[in-house]
Design goal:
The protein is mainly α. The protein has helices at residues 2-16, 20-69, 76-82, 88-103, 112-131, 135-167, 172-182, 184-226, 234-240; strands at residues 253-254, 258-259, 262-263.
C-alpha cells in the first residue's frame, strides 16, 4: 500500500515537471515572446469577430426597416428622414440626392445616369470597405499563427537538446519530456489560427450578403433618381397598387345566362 502511494506520488511529481509553465521557463525569452504574441493574436481576433458581428447585425436590422416602409414614402428625402442617422442605407440615399443636386451645377456635359451611378458606387464601396475592416488581420492570424507556434517549438526543442547533450544522459526519459513540452507552442499556434480562419470565412460570407443587398438598394435609388420618381422597386409598386374590387353581379341577373333567377330558354 505504502509502495503504491509512493509510486503515485513520484509519478505526479514527474508529471508536474512538464507543462506550459515549465515550457515557458525552459524556452526562455523566445518562448515567452511567442506565447505573448499568440495570446495577443487570439484576443484581437475575438474582439474583431464580436465587433464585426455587432456591426453586421446593425446593418441587417436597418435593411429590415428599409423593406418595411422606405419605398412607401412620397419622396427619397421623406424616406431618408425615416431612417436612422447612422444608417448605411441613409448614407446611400443622401449621397444620391447630393449627386443629383451637384449634377445641375456641372459645367461640362455629363450624363446624369453616369454621374449618379458613379456617386452611388463610391458610397457603396465606402460602406463595404468599412465592413471589411479587420478581416485582413484575421486572415493574417490564420496564416501565420501556426508558423509562429512552430518557431517556438523549434527553439524549445533546440534548447532541450542542448541541455540534454550537456548533461551527458541521452536516455529516452530525458529526451521525450522536453521535446514533448516544446510541442505545446505548435498546439497553441493551431488553437489561435483555427478560430481566426473560421471567423474570417463566416464574416466574409455575411459581408457578401450585405453587399448584395446594398447593391440592389443602390440600383433602386438610381432608377428612382434617373426617372424622377417614376421607377420604384417592383415590390414597392405592387404594394402601392390598389387591389381590384371583386366583381359583383348586377341586381336581377345571375351567372350562366340567367335573369331574375329564371334560366333563359330558347
Amino acid at each position: 500500500m505504502i509502495t503504491t502511494i509512493l509510486a503515485a506520488g513520484g509519478t505526479a511529481a514527474a508529471e508536474s515537471q512538464f507543462g506550459l509553465q515549465q515550457a515557458l521557463k525552459e524556452g526562455g525569452i523566445i518562448s515567452q515572446s511567442v506565447f505573448t504574441i499568440l495570446v495577443l493574436m487570439s484576443v484581437v481576433s475575438f474582439y474583431i469577430l464580436f465587433s464585426k458581428l455587432f456591426e453586421q447585425q446593425k446593418i441587417l436590422n436597418q435593411a429590415k426597416r428599409v423593406r418595411q416602409g422606405f419605398w412607401s414614402s412620397n419622396s427619397l428625402r421623406e424616406g431618408s428622414a425615416k431612417l436612422d442617422k447612422n444608417s448605411a442605407y441613409k448614407q446611400l440615399v443622401d449621397d444620391g440626392l447630393a449627386a443629383q443636386d451637384q449634377h445641375k451645377q456641372l459645367t461640362d456635359p455629363v450624363e446624369a445616369h453616369d454621374w449618379l451611378h458613379g456617386s452611388l458606387a463610391r458610397s457603396e464601396a465606402a460602406i463595404n470597405s468599412k465592413l471589411g475592416g479587420g478581416l485582413a488581420f484575421l486572415a493574417t492570424v490564420g496564416a501565420t499563427a501556426p508558423f509562429i507556434g512552430l518557431f517556438g517549438t523549434v527553439v524549445g526543442i533546440y534548447r532541450a537538446l542542448i541541455k540534454i547533450g550537456a548533461s551527458g544522459d541521452p536516455s529516452i526519459d530525458k529526451v521525450a519530456g522536453p521535446v514533448g513540452e516544446a510541442l505545446i507552442m505548435t498546439a497553441l499556434g493551431l488553437v489561435v489560427a483555427v478560430p481566426a480562419v473560421l471567423a474570417y470565412n463566416w464574416l466574409q460570407r455575411r459581408n457578401k450578403s450585405i453587399s448584395e443587398d446594398l447593391s440592389a438598394f443602390s440600383n433602386d435609388v438610381l432608377g428612382y433618381l434617373a426617372s424622377n420618381g417614376a421607377v420604384k422597386p417592383v415590390s414597392a409598386a405592387a404594394a402601392a397598387r390598389p387591389t381590384p374590387a371583386a366583381t359583383r353581379p348586377t341586381p336581377g341577373t345571375t351567372t350562366a345566362g340567367t335573369t331574375g333567377g329564371v334560366e333563359k330558354r330558347a
